[in-house]
Amino acid sequence: MRALDVGVRAAGRWLVREVSLHVPAGRVCALVGPNGAGKSTLLRAMAGELRTAEGAVFVGGVRLADHEPLALARRRAVLPQHASLSFPFEVREVVEMGRRPFAGLHGAAHERRVLDEVVSSLDLAPLLGRRYPSLSGGERQRVQAGRVLAQVLDATPEQPRWLLLDEPTAAFDLPRVGQLFEAISRPVRDGSLGVLVVVHDLTIAATFADDVALLQGGGLVLHGHARQVLTPEHLEPVFGTRLITLEPEPGRQVVVPLWAAGMPRRGGTEHG
Amino acid sequence: MTVSAQPSRQTQRRARLAERLVASRGGVALLVGVCALVAAMIVATHVGALRTPWDAPLRLLGELLGLDRLFGVDEPGLTAGQRAVLLNLRIPRVLFAAVVGAALGLSGAAVQGLFRNPLAAPEVIGASAGAACGAVIAIMLVSWFTIPLGPTAGLAMRPVFAFVGAVAVTAALYRFATGEHGTSVLTMLLAGIAANALMMSVVGLASFLSDDAALRDITLWMLGSLSSATWASLGIVSLVLLVGGAWLMRSASALDLLLLGEAEAGHLGTDVPALKRRVIVASSLVLSAAIAFVGLISFVGLVVPHMVRLVVGPGHRWLLPVSAVSGAALLTFADTLARTIAAPAELPIGVLTALIGGPVFLLLLRSTRRELGVTP
Question: Which of B3, B117, B182 sits opposite A123 (nearest CB)?
Fold first, then answer.
């Protein structure tokens, strides 16, 4: 999936301009940047929700606008930042909606296998019989994640699919964050899934993303391997705050902001 | 890193059993609804100014098909008076009540799905008033120009004009109240009040401009009654209901996805603009056919889908047909009540449905506020 010189205008202002981004199957690409940098706008333009004033988006080599809606739904799934479902569907029904684009294509056994994988990888079993409006914010987000996961999980390397996520873990507690990225890692590793994800937490980007695209003021500052982009010299001018990167264990990177107003504390924090 | 244990085989099996139960719950509800409808129709045919035997419809059918002669039944047949009442008045009226009730329940369910809000209903958003406005203008125009095609053409103009009114109001309200993040209840209700007021003022204006004969027609029609039932009007409403119902049923799955949000439905492969057009046109079609002939009957389209959703859940595959059948049963029952409770006078049916529906709706709202996510 690819964006070519994409520009999005709203109310006479460019929200995103001249951004080209390649999200290949088999990689997780994180969109990072300060508030108002155009992360969500770019994601929504690449999802086809926003009209591009300039440039074009290609999915599987075909221009977004030339895809039939159903054919496109079979190639990529989108998880929005806010979900507005207020009807009392059961969680099971919501997750199954992710399979609607494939109705009648596969047998019942295949469908069951996909749904079982979604349910076990996101630990949705305890929620399945509950009504969606009765869930907490984090649970709702997990269910919606399960829905889009069901839409892409049975992709093959010959027919790869893409997953666009807008801050999917904003309401998650810590272990759930790892759980979600672990759930997408299987199809990503075998080359059948490409992921574009907006994240705020730079440590999440450093831990789970292969590539990072750094946005500022609607433009792409830098796009490359996570290790190369997530360095203080690139991040500090964009975020306007001091940052350090730590390597607590080999191969793991943590990005820590040093806020100017940070209060010095006594005592240490425990590490598990 | 595994955060939690894999769900046991037993939990999964239990989940699947629950799944099958949910699927059959819709079927059971449909069956119960059909039984209630048949019961209501039998009672409705039986009672009235002239009581007929319980099995009269069956006997009549037998006579019409010539079965009684075939099997040599020697019971005394129906009297000529009973037969005339059944054939010309009672049976068309009972069937008409069922068809109109089905139309109201169905269009209510579809509109609530379209607006992604359980408080949306044709009477709330002003679609019913729009249809009424169209029908009244049709009555006025017929009287002004004395359309030379006779009473049938005049009758046929009403549903057409009502349809235009209903479509216009539904589409306008949707534009107005529904954005990217769903329907704003407050905007919808306020815009609905405005639309209702506007439409009713046009009705008033049309009445003001009408001559005496048309004014009498308008007044009679506005009170709402099923007594205008004829085989012709029954045929028109049934046909529209079948076409609109089939159209809506084809959109049932897409309507479920629309409840997730417009963008989400699009990402799941729905052609959202086409879906919205289809649902607006089909629900207005069904609604206006009913309203054009019987006048304003409120609360059926609001309360019936609401109650049905509590039983079968929000999935449209079951919600639409069960709402139609329940609406049919409810209106058949209500009409029977309306024409017997103050016999020989007849209570306007719209008054009765509002009397029953209003309090029921308030009770429902109170008990299910949180579950339905009804927040201003």
Answer: B3
